[in-house]
Design goal:
Helices cover 17% and strands 43% of the residues. It has two helices and nine strands; from the N terminus they run αββββαβββββ. The chain has helices spanning 6-10, 54-73; strands at residues 23-27, 31-37, 45-46, 49-50, 81-91, 96-97, 101-112, 115-124, 127-138. The strands form two sheets. It has a six-stranded antiparallel beta sheet. The radius of gyration is 15 Å and the shape is globular.
Length: 148
């Protein structure tokens, strides 16, 4: 039986309407897979469409979910963090649409103290629609786990 990971989303520092991650599908030491459903009333929707640049925020929120998971497993409270930036994000679609289910796969490439870099892939219906890397910083000191 798969581990119930609903608690990870509940403990994320992001709150609706700015929390875009709906569920955690799987998690490993340096990787997490999350899902986002673009539902009616989504804060980023305009005329039924959502800019594909939301992929960057989805990448950051998936990384935050991994940090929440690691903190809990280390017996620590979750802390906030910051998206420092990205060097490159490739997007292959003009827009996402209400009703889309997006899967976010984030893998930590390196970590050093409170800093980390993640390689990210976003898929829709199994097709890759965005990929790239993000750099993040933990606000509460080094995130537990890889590279800490």
């Amino acid at each position: 039986m798969a581990e119930d990971l609903s608690w990870v989303v509940a403990q994320m520092p992001h709150q609706p309407p700015m929390r875009f991650i709906d569920e955690v599908l799987e998690v490993e030491d340096a990787r997490i897979v999350c899902r986002c459903h673009l539902g009616e009333g989504h804060i980023m929707a305009d005329a039924g469409r959502v800019t594909p640049l939301v992929a960057i925020e989805l990448f950051a929120q998936a990384a935050a979910a991994l940090m929440v998971y690691r903190a809990a497993k280390a017996g620590m409270p979750p802390t906030g963090g910051f998206l420092l930036g990205t060097r490159k994000v490739d997007v292959t679609v003009d827009a996402f649409h209400l009703g889309d289910a997006l899967t976010i796969d984030v893998k930590e490439l390196w970590g050093n103290g409170p800093l980390a870099q993640f390689e990210c892939v976003l898929t829709r219906d199994g097709d890759e629609v965005a990929s790239g890397s993000i750099n993040v910083a933990s606000a509460g000191g080094p995130p537990p786990g890889v590279g800490a």
